[in-house]
Amino acid sequence: MKNVDIEIYISNLIRFFETNPNDLLILIGEIQKEEFYTKLREKSEDNHKKGLDIILTREQIINIVVEMKIPQINDHSEVSKLVMKTKFGDIIMN
């Protein structure tokens, strides 16, 4: 059964980000926003089960973003495009 307070809280977060898309872009970058909203709801529900406040802390939101970005960070294909291998060694093309 869904907690009404969590639904209201998440709905307000979504409404804020939908009316302020630049804030969402700054926060999550190229992450899928629907997945981000789902993770926010899951964390809020987890807090409720543990008897904590359903309102997520700044640290909890940042941890969600970092967790979602780790696969992107570990993708070395983009990094390899920035490195030019020469007989003198590797040169970073940045």
Q: Report the portion of residues in β strands.
A: 5-15%
In round numbers, the mean pLDDT is 83
Global outline = elongated
Largest sheet, strands/sense/barrel: 2 strands, antiparallel
Strand runs, count? 2
Give the N-terminus to C-terminus distance in angstroms: 51 Å
Tally the helices. Answer: 5
Percent of residues in helical segments? 55-70%
What order do the SSEs take from the amino end to the carboxyl end, as H and E?
HHHHHEE
**In the residues, how many domains can be counted?**
1
Unreliable segments of 5+ consecutive residues: none
Computed structural class:
mainly alpha
Description:
The chain is mainly α and 94 residues long. It has one domain. 66% of the residues lie in helices and 9% in strands. A two-stranded antiparallel sheet has the order 1-2. A hairpin with a 2-residue loop joins strand 1 and strand 2 (89-92). Helix 1 (4-19) crosses helix 2 (21-28) and helix 1 (4-19) runs antiparallel to helix 3.
Quick overview:
By secondary structure, this protein is mainly alpha-helical.
Topology:
Elements: H1 4-19, H2 21-28, H3 33-49, H4 58-73, H5 77-81, E1 83-86, E2 89-92
Antiparallel strand pairs: 1-2
Helix pairs in contact: 1-2, 1-3, 3-4
